[in-house]
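User: Second chain of the day. Same drill as before.
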Amino acid sequence: MAEFPVTRAIVRRRLIAIFILTVLVTILLISRLAWIQIVQADKLYEQAWEQWSHNVPISTARGSIYDSQGRLLAGSTSVNTVAAIPPQIDNPEAVAGALAPILEMDAQRIYELITMDRSAIYIKRKVDPDVSEAVREMNIPGIIFFNEEKRYYPGDNLASQVLGFVGMDQGLAGVESYYEDYLSGSEGRMLYPADGRGKQLPHTFSRYTLPQQGYDLHLAIDESIQHIVERELARVMETSAPKQAIALVLDPQNGAVLAAAAKPDYSPSTYELYSPESWSLAPITSSFEPGSTFKMVTLAAVVEEGLFNPDEVHHCPGYTTVNGNRIHCWTVDRGGHGNISFYESVGGSCNPAFIELGQRLGKEKLFQYLDAFGFGQVTGIDYPGEGSGMIFSLDQVGPMELATTTFGQGISVTPIQQVMAVTAMINGGYLYQPYIVEEITDQDGNSLMKRKPEVIRQVVSEETSAQLVDMMESVVLDGTGYAAAIEGYRVAGKTGTAEKVDESGNYSGSDYIYSLVGFAPVENPQLVLYVAVDGVTRGPRLGVHTSAPLFKNIMEDSLNYLQVSPSPTQEHTGGEVEEYEDQELEEQEEH
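Assistant: Same format as last time:
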């Protein structure tokens, strides 16, 4: 095989090729180094930091809750949480034994926590100051402390069911739960560089991501009116010993909830010591048969439809018969009302009269108005767990269902639904969206949300509204609500005595809910108030001795607090005591 001599030209070409290749490789390496060191430097540094560092969460302050006058209802105070950095604890068994008696925890449980494969772990959160100080004095390497926020309520039980309560990290009831996303804020982080065993490197600095504090809530609730409500509820609980007493106060001009409560209630600071039944706000979450307060819905419908003649006379013998079933009026024991005008039947709360009005109206029209007033559906108020009540579907309504619905039996509604319906009856016919929170602000006072009154629909005309106001005033002037009259003010309302169903599914005949819904002053309504006393077990078992005085005391003191100018009162004739306004149904064979 022939051999080709290696000439200088070939060598030169090879050297040039090697040089060019070396230059290209060098350029590539420099470019790659520049890409890593300059272009990707920040990103790679962050990734490296995450590998080197361990992080510990830093909690934030929860937003505060204020009443409509800026008075604090719920706030937060700083407390210590005891935590551990497991890799930095050299003798976990000894540490667990030393901490157990101070933290009042099981030593084995502490040992399990401080030996976990974690960069940091809580041992016991939100401890009392004396406990955290005792642990600090032990000066144990790897045991650290965080400042956290603990919820406190200056009024203790005051407005507890409105406010709700907070668990270890989040709201669990009331507006604390409903507005959790606004109140909670966002937690921060502390990062520190550590070696392969997780121990912090000496002479290094920690990095912080600052937490964002939660937003503040400003409620429509007025602390003073709330105090009046709860004081009077506590009084009726003492004098009448009912199963429950509730009250709800609204501004009829915009749907703002000024006060709401039920007794028994609880302390949100120690909520776990109370029955969960006491945690919810019954005026919003509970539903029951309304009784004769519901007659105002029937009345509103027939007046709006032009089917109501106030001077027309109806004869009440104490009962009426529907489909072979006798339905009593509360006056049955004395032979009924006799001849009574439809106007007088409102103040006298005559069941047969309202049944006749409902029959004139017909089921389609009546249930159309029930829907328009918002019954059988949630109002959408900003509170968790709102009830919707239960009314008949139209295909379920026969003559008996139509008759009993006209006076509030056989259906269930919530207090908030009744109050909003009455509000629409007295303010010109406008159904408002009810609300509890008026404004949400940040820590600098900047507004994130400012509530504006929202009209859902107009249910009845202004003319109908004026007639309903007049007839509701007659209930207090000369009818069953006379005990709710307040000297110096024109008051209007409607009473109700709803017979409760017992465990067998029948009406008990002895267990009642006494209620009253009304407003004042008549010439310019400032407050609409609903009260109910459920299951009286002590003293007189009549609405005139329970719900009426409860209504009067709350309304009178609230009007005085608001400095509402008195209005000329009208003399009343001292109406009739409503003893058994809604009687059980009796079936009779026709003879």
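The radius of gyration is 36 Å.

User: Great, on to the next one.
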